[in-house]
């Protein structure tokens, strides 16, 4: 059964463009991972002001493996530093609890030295119960 992992990011209005640019720069960060099925960066329009990073995986194990991988950790070095300094013990930005960005430095994955565009994040997990796509013609 596939699992859906959504990272809900709080992003100040003035950082939206920067966030989208950073995601754009990281195309390919996840596609080649074993068990990866789908990714979408969802920009909020109505009902919430949080961006959703939608990812779908073949299994929980595949997601965990990706989170523990070099590719995820390098891409989320800033989050990792902050999670560690908040004593969460996870070390790689699981999105549990807020990840506050204070602009104190630059992770390797970041475009420039202004710290994270997101000021908070929350990880949501789902199991796919039903799924359908566009009808094939
Ligand atoms: C559901 C799995 C994911 C989790 C748990 C996660 C975790 C996080 C966290 C905690 C942040 C906020 C801290 C920070 O800004 O550094 C963040 C931001 C970010 N993540 Fe992820 N992430 C996930 C998926 C992805 C994917 C699939 C990509 C790339 C395709 C990605 C690329 C980024 C980028 C570019 C940022 C923005 C950094 C910024 O705020 O400037 N993430 N992620």
Automatic annotation (TrEMBL):
InterPro entries: ABM_dom, Dimeric_a/b-barrel, Heme-degrading_MO. Residues 88-114 have a biased composition (Gly residues). It holds the Pfam family ABM. Residues 73-87 have a biased composition (Low complexity). Signal peptide: none annotated. Residues 68-137 are annotated as: Disordered. PROSITE patterns: ABM (PS51725). It comes from the Bacteria. Residues 128-137 have a biased composition (Polar residues). SUPFAM superfamilies: Dimeric alpha+beta barrel (SSF54909). Residues 3-93 form the ABM domain. This is ABM domain-containing protein. It comes from Sphaerisporangium flaviroseum. The lineage of its organism: Bacteria, Bacillati, Actinomycetota, Actinomycetes, Streptosporangiales.
């Amino acid at each position: 059964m596939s699992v859906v992992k959504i990272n809900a990011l709080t992003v100040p209005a003035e950082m939206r463009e920067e966030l989208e640019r950073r995601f754009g720069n990281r195309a390919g960060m996840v596609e080649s991972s074993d068990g990866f099925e789908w990714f979408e960066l969802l920009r909020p329009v109505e009902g919430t002001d949080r961006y959703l990073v939608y990812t779908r995986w073949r299994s929980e194990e595949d997601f965990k493996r990706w989170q523990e991988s070099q590719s995820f950790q390098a891409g989320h070095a800033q989050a990792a530093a902050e999670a560690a300094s908040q004593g969460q013990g996870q070390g790689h930005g699981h999105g549990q609890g807020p990840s506050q960005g204070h602009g104190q430095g630059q992770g390797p994955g970041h475009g420039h030295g202004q710290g994270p565009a997101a000021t908070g994040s929350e990880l949501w997990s789902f199991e796919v119960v039903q799924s359908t796509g566009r009808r094939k013609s």
